[in-house]
Input
Amino acid sequence: MIHKTLETRQVGRRELMAMFGAGVVAAMGVGMTPRDAMADAKSVTDAMMKVVGDSKPATGKIKLDLPQIAENGNTVPIAVEVDSPMSDADHVKALHLWADKNPRPEVASFRFSPASGKAKVSTRVRLSKTQNIVAVAEMSDGKFYMAKSEIKVTIGGCGG
Amino acid sequence: MGKFHLGSLLAAGAILAVGFSTQANAEGKHGMYANGEIRSGYTYLTPQSKAIQNDDFQNPGMIWVDDGATLYEAVDGKAGKSCKACHGKAEVAMKGVATTYPKYDEDTKKIKNIEAQVNRCRTKHMQAKPWKYESGQLLAMTVFIRHQSRGMPMNVSVDGPAVPFFQKGEKFYKQRRGALDMACSNCHIDNAGKNARANLLSQGQTNGFPTYRLKWQKVGSTHRRFRGCNKQVRATPYKYASDEYMNLELYVAWRGRGLPVETPAVRN
Amino acid sequence: MAKTKARVKVPKSIKKGEVFQVKTLISHKMETGQRKNKKTGKKISRMIINKLVCQYNGKEVFASDWHPAISANPYMAFYVKADASGSLDFTWTDDEGKSVKKSAKITVAG
Output
């Protein structure tokens, strides 16, 4: 499993577009039209903007555990953990997951409280192609954190 | 008795030996999941998929085990019996059974698999309707019965009356078919361990069937898998419960001799 | 939800204040709404479980909203901090508003 945590740093809207812009460039290389690729990128950033509003999510605190390559895109085990004391004063309120190249980017949202003890969830998701899983955590003090991790999804060959 | 194929002679010799022990398997690189050069599909899985199979809670195939357990105790048919009424507790009565199937049936004079035997019991002894192949009930019952032998080494008999059927199964396996003109052996013997585009080819073993295939998002039988494989090389698939597939299933089960029953396995 | 089976797993005994893992699994196709009927060409309507909520002695301790990107036969595990003995009550709800409920007894020592 690959653990990816980025150093804590503020991420602005322009930077967010740039992060997904990289995906656009790669996608163009695979023969997608620029409009298709922009549509995917736009919908995840839009979805994220709805959650974070004007705030700039920082990077860090989120650990995304996914395989590098999916055995089968329809059942990809994933674990997400947010580093937090989960105390009354300082805890994770919510966690959102998106897949930036799925037919629709939303994967799931989770609500926690100090009674959770730990802000960690494990589940299995469907991914239609190679893409990024994007996570945004909403903290009790109003701050947001985000993390992103790429996973390769191959379409079979002879799996039947 | 007719001509003996070398393969069947070797098989007969192997059967005369004192069966297989998955304990002996434990020494090799793949532990209990291999018997010498014979490798379970488990050994080709990613670590994440292995983890799903290893956890009885997470393994979706276990849902079918639960369903099968319920069906085993349910009264069905005009005779007013449940499976349990005749067989007693499944953990006792069905332990080891899966390791010997498919097998030759004295009455029908053909090879039968577990699914066929379940339906024979239902019609003959319970006076109940046979379950349709690939139905939820037949899958659940087959999974439940085979699950009782989990961990035990596969050891089907391919000698005596089974010989001609074993030979037919072997012939099927090595015969090219379909628009792609490929035989089972082309992938599962000649190229096992190599990639066919993005898929890693296994030896095509059946020790974990009925298996939860990620592709199917549910549990499926050996015959479903055979049909899929035949369709992939653009060959017309045979029918579920056909003689061709029964014989093929016997041959393939022999190919997996010594591998532990893993039902319900998780595979791609 | 016809024939849907749910199962949950919690540790047998827990110490007060301990953070323990809760595992859940429910059998469900999670029909995405993207698939087409091979014969008719018509789209198969979406029908998924879209919510899982867990209450600890009546108080919500975990809630999740699911989308079609959650795999079939959904597995979800999360954590709870042990407080008083009692029960964890789980409710899965589908797109039609129908729900499946399951409870697990919690035994907290200390």
